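Entry:
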Amino acid sequence: MNSIYNLTKECLILLEKHNLLKPLIQQEILSKILENTVLDIKDKDSIKKLFIEKKQFKNNEEFDDWLISENLEEEEFIEKISKPFKLNQHCLEKFSHKSDSRFLERKSELDQVIYSLVRVKSLFEANELYLRVKEKEECLCDVAKEHSQGDEKNTLGVIGPVPMNQGHPSLSEVLKSNAPGALVPPFKVESWWLFLRIESVIEAKLDENMETKMSNELFQEWLEEETDLIMSQLKISK
């Protein structure tokens, strides 16, 4: 970070004027973190294996041939693509102990739902179609295909899986407050009248991937705070 603190006042003013100072500081912080994060042999082997699978190489010989075609040494290549792995490792080392509490805070947002939706402009039409489905005169998928006025008509009314809190707050509240199988009577969202059925709820779990996600979120918050602190120090020092 010394290079940042050694910048002249004029340079800092120019960078900030063009909204370049903050991303520059963040890149410097990230560079320092990556420089100090060391991958062991097992990690490097995992990175190599994932890359080989992604490229669908049949064996290590094909991978070696690819390295030659790209004019790369293996160590150079590993270093080049290891940044996201190093960052994940750093995030887990520094923030995984807080991932459980972050997950519990965010669980209602992380849960996903699949639902079937019909939306029309008229309350009268919405009620009529809702009753047809409720009385089993027609299935919801057919009603959606024939009468729904949104993109969901192309998927027989089915939406998801999507996060519970995605979309309009009124819709999110309905999704959160009803159980799978529930057929929800018409309700208004802006200029639309909607009715829907909850098909299934996919509850988020704190598995390895989720722990990494929560740790990364916590790291991003820390990065913002650290960047703001350095920016304030630069203004004071200059």
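The longest helix spans residues 208-237.
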